[in-house]
Design brief:
Blueprint: H1 12-27, H2 59-65, H3 77-101, H4 113-127, H5 142-158, H6 165-194
Helix pairs in contact: 4-5, 4-6, 5-6
Length: 205
């Protein structure tokens, strides 16, 4: 799977505000310093950092210093509708091209919620070593399997009350099976970890 491209949103208003602040600092008058006092009394220190003066920033200052996450504006309903139509037209042209090269291939069925759940199920089981060919050592990605199962849990939580009875039963069954397989696999891993290491082979004299 290709990495998801990262986008950086630049707010031109932010740069403009920073430029105005810099200009204001340039024309700001220098602080007036009184005459230097002789002796060992206190004296005025200009431009001393807060850290040097022993000032600890308050939680409010820490929050203000952290940059705020700026999200791009959501697409309008018209933009989403136009993009959806363009995507479906492009997908249809791709399917017609594939069917022209493979006349025996029938039309692709529409993607449904069941396909999404099955995709997560297959991914989780493969990550836990299922489907390994006979004679080969299973390759287990236990952390990836946990993430996939957790995604199924998020899906069940976010879609609760919005699924048909068949969809809900299928999702709950897949969650149960993948979690059970995860428990069995982690139990085996724990047992192997608790076993003492084999004794070293006796050396040759």
């Amino acid at each position: 799977m290709s990495e998801t491209p990262k986008f950086t949103v630049i707010d031109r208003r932010k740069f403009k505000a920073e430029e105005e602040n810099e200009n204001a600092q340039k024309v700001a008058p220098e602080p007036e310093v009184g005459p230097r006092e002789t002796g060992g009394g206190p004296r005025l220190v200009v431009n001393e950092s807060k850290e040097a003066a022993g000032h600890e920033p308050s939680p409010v200052e820490d929050e203000k210093s952290e940059p705020e996450l700026e999200m791009p504006p959501a697409p309008t309903a018209e933009e989403s509708h136009e993009q959806k139509n363009a995507y479906e037209a492009s997908a249809q042209r791709l399917e017609e091209l594939l069917r022209a090269q493979n006349p025996a291939m029938g039309a692709q069925p529409p993607i449904t919620f069941e396909h999404l759940v099955q995709q997560f199920y297959v991914s989780a089981m493969i990550q836990m070593g299922a489907g390994t060919q006979e004679g080969q050592r299973p390759r287990v990605d236990i952390v990836g399997a946990r993430n996939t199962i957790d995604l199924l849990g998020v899906l069940a939580e976010k879609t609760r009350g919005n699924l048909t009875e068949t969809e809900e039963r299928m999702l709950e069954s897949v969650l149960f099976e993948t979690r059970m397989a995860f428990l069995e696999l982690t139990s085996m891993i724990n047992v192997q970890a608790m076993q003492p290491p084999p004794p070293p082979a006796p050396g040759k004299r």
